[in-house]
Amino acid sequence: MKIDRIINMITILIKKQKVTSKELAEYFGVSVRTIQRDIDTLSMAGIPIYSEVGKKGGYKILEAYTFDKNFLNIDEANILIPFLKNLQQSVPSAELDSVFNKFSSLSKHNNDQKLVVKMNPLINEKSFKHILSQLTKARDEQLKITITYIDSEFEKTMRTINPYTLVMLGTTWYVYAFCKLRNDFRMFKLTRIVTCELLTEKFIVKDKPEPLPWDHLLDSGRDSTEIILEIDRALQGKLPEYFDFNNCKIKDNKIIVNLFYPVDEWLYSLLTGLIPHVKIIKPDWLRAEFINRLELSLEKNKL
Q1: pLDDT of 86
Q2: What is the pLDDT of residues 277-289, one digit of tens each?
Q3: Residue of higher predicted confidence among 152 and 255
Q4: What is the radius of gyration, based on Cα positions, of the chain?
Q5: What CATH topology corresponds to 123-202?
Q6: Counting beta carbons within 10 angstroms of the beta carbon of residue 241, is it exposed (0 to 12), middle (13 to 18) or buried (19 or more)?
Q7: The pLDDT value given to residue 115
Q8: Domain 2-61 listed as CATH 1.10.10.10
Q9: Could you tell me which residues are beta bridge partners of residue 176?
Q10: Phi, psi of 260 (to 5 degrees)
Q11: Cα(first)–Cα(last) distance of the chain, in Å?
């Protein structure tokens, strides 16, 4: 991955409203896969790039973050520096150090913080940074890597994977990779990777199946349930952190939330976090199961 190509790509995305991976590949004389990796790198740095699918699709920077087209003045450097610093801390690289220093030298007001980017604090952990760095190297050099992975049953499994894409969804990091054990593509949560060992054997690149997991809701393939919650207005200030505002209605001094979501451990965790301000209106079986879990917890915590 050439840093000068990354910087030039930022310039193109700023000056053009939309550009396809094919156009970028032809411009830089590289493969479409290389361009996709570069886009992943920019996204990892926090630069808000998103893709639109279809005949008129392509990559673009969110309009709210588009910089002045006269690239690059001091104010623009001040905007990019936090993103570069975040990527530099996540994936140490001599090239990134050089670019970060060049951008920093453009700014005369390094202490004038107009934008602060603070990612998941796990990124600062030594082991997490090591795993992220090794996965990045494996992806860029098409090397197989062996990981020790903690599954949903809290069991350790050894996996040999071929990393394709590093993905950040919300505040959670994943690696999208071909798993030899499952003989299929999988999303692996980085916080569940305990150890990793980079192998010398290269992998043959396969076409990734469409649609990609991050192009749609990860849970869209699972059965969803209509859920109605009644929440005290004491939590109204925090509700936008959990629910779509359009799904919330005020009724009789309560907030009614309508959801259509799979019932899983994440949902139960959310409901537990809303205690004592939440009541499950629908469905009845979900309310009964939630009460059962609360009773079991009370029993375990009796003095």
Answers
A1: 62
A2: 999 999 999 999 9
A3: 255
A4: 23
A5: SH3 type barrels. (2.30.30)
A6: exposed
A7: 47
A8: yes
A9: 165, 187
A10: -135, 95
A11: 59
Q: Please give the angle made by the CA atoms of 207, 6 and 97, to the nearest 5 degrees.
A: 120
Where along the chain do its domains lie?
2-61, 74-118, 123-202, 224-300
What is the model's pLDDT at position 142? 92
Would you say the pTM of this structure is higher than 0.90? no
DSSP-based three-state secondary structure for 231: strand
Count of beta carbons in the 10 Å neighbourhood of residue 116: 6
Helices 32-44 and 21-28: crossing angle, nearest 10°? 110
DSSP secondary structure string for all residues of 184-223: EEEEEEGGGEEEEEEEEEE----PPPSSPGGGS-TTTTS-
Task: Give the model's confidence band at 82: pLDDT under 50 very low, under 70 low, under 90 confident, else very high.
Answer: low
Region for 233 from its dihedrals, namely left if φ exceeds 0, alpha if ψ lies in -120 to 50, beta otherwise:
alpha
The CA-CA-CA angle for residues 213, 219, 222, to 5°, reads 120
Peptide bond into 72 cis (omega under 30): yes
User: Quick one: tokens of 165?
Assistant: 């894409």
The domain over range 224-300 is classified in CATH as 3.30.70: yes
Query: Do the Cβ atoms of 47 and 59 come closer than 8 Å?
Result: no
Both tokens assigned to 199:
């192998």
Average per-residue pLDDT for the chain: 77
Q: What is the pLDDT of residues 94-137, one digit of tens each?
A: 555 655 555 555 554 455 555 454 555 545 467 777 888 899 88
Structure tokens at 62: 């969110």
For position 198, what pLDDT does the model report? 94
Q: Do domains 2-61 and 224-300 have the same CATH topology?
A: no
Number of other CB atoms surrounding residue 225 within 10 Å? 14
Could you write out the DSSP letters of every residue in 22-86? HHHHHHHTS-HHHHHHHHHHHHHTT--EEEE-STT-EEEE-GGGPPPSS---HHHHHHHHHHHHH
